[in-house]
Amino acid sequence: MIELKNISKTFGRDESAVHALTDVSLTIGDGKFFAVVGKSGCGKSTMMNIIGALDKPTSGVVIADGMDLTSLSDDHLAEYRNKHIGYIFQSFYLEPTFTVLENVVMPMLIAGLPRARCERAALDALRKLDLGDKAHKKANQLSGGQKQRVSIARAVVHGPKIILADEPTGNLDSHNGAAVIALLQSIAAEGKTVVLVTHNTEDARKADITVELKDGRIERITENTAYRAAEE
Ligand SMILES: Nc1ncnc2c1ncn2[C@@H]1O[C@H](COP(=O)(O)OP(=O)(O)OP(=O)(O)O)[C@@H](O)[C@H]1O
Ligand SMILES: [Mg+2]
Q1: Could you tell me if 122 and 170 are in contact, meaning their C-beta atoms sit under 8 angstroms apart?
Q2: CATH number, domain containing residue 179
Q3: Cα–Cα distance measured from residue 36 to residue 46, given in angstroms and rounded to the nearest whole number
């Protein structure tokens, strides 16, 4: 479980200060699928970066499984990120000249795991995402939808508890976008916590809980049980 307690984030200072988040409190329960929505500039990515320990709040605390992330040193934060968090971004961030397999094993190698074990786990993840036959292709030879599936494989391969996806469908057509959302739903169904930033209200309603941000504040938190029950 991750708790944001009275989080504020200000970029810059004095007259150029931007209050990206103001007094945001949110409990992100284990195994839940959260969607974060709101207009451009409302603070979605800032909130994701704080949940994922890529950035620190200006004030407030982030408690992950009882541990105060805001009190950790940069080294311990990096360790926490490598172990517990998988990131998926709009622009994939694959290394274009590396193979698909090399891209997926990279974070595990950085974490110091033995290569043979990393490659087994990576091939396993790629097969699950229907990319088994692409393992030895260069990343820049794939379509957008395939690249995003590789980045999902890379995000889940080391077994993190939390998957953060910041507009993962932003560069995809509707068909590939739907496939990515379905994958995130199945990852959540396996018991992972998924936090998805999206502009697509239909996708947001597929999450368990929708968090609406406005001007850096939480405007509304909606449980989508009724919608999901109607779908089933
Ligand atoms: N590193 C930074 N330095 C200065 N200002 C920043 C920085 N990052 C974000 N901001 C500002 O903080 C506010 C929130 O930005 P954020 O990126 O969180 O919005 P967002 O909701 O993700 O928007 P989008 O939908 O366009 O991705 C914006 O006004 C933005 O300009
Ligand atoms: Mg953003």
Answers
A1: no
A2: 3.40.50.300
A3: 11
The CA distances from residue 69 to 52, 66, 80, 99, 198, in Å, are 10, 9, 9, 34, 25
pLDDT of 50 over the 80 cut: yes
**What does the pLDDT average to over 164-184?**
91
Q: Are 17 and 191 in contact (CB under 8 A)?
A: no
Is the pTM here over 0.90, yes or no? Answer: yes
In testing the pocket of ligand 1, which one of 13, 39, 42 has its CB within 8 Å of the most ligand atoms?
Answer: 42
Domain extent at residue 92: 30-42+74-231
Site to substitute for ligand 1 among 18, 19, 214, most atoms within 8 A of C-beta: 18
The residues lining ligand 1, judged by C-beta closer than 6 Å to any ligand atom, are: 11-12, 18, 20, 38, 40-46
**69-95 pLDDT, tens digit each:** 999 999 999 989 988 999 999 888 999
Residue at 50 is within a domain: no
Report which protein residue has its CA nearest ligand 1's atom 1: 11
Q: Tell me if 13 is assigned to some domain.
A: no
Could you read off the pLDDT of 147-168 as tens digits, one per residue?
Answer: 999 999 999 998 899 999 999 9
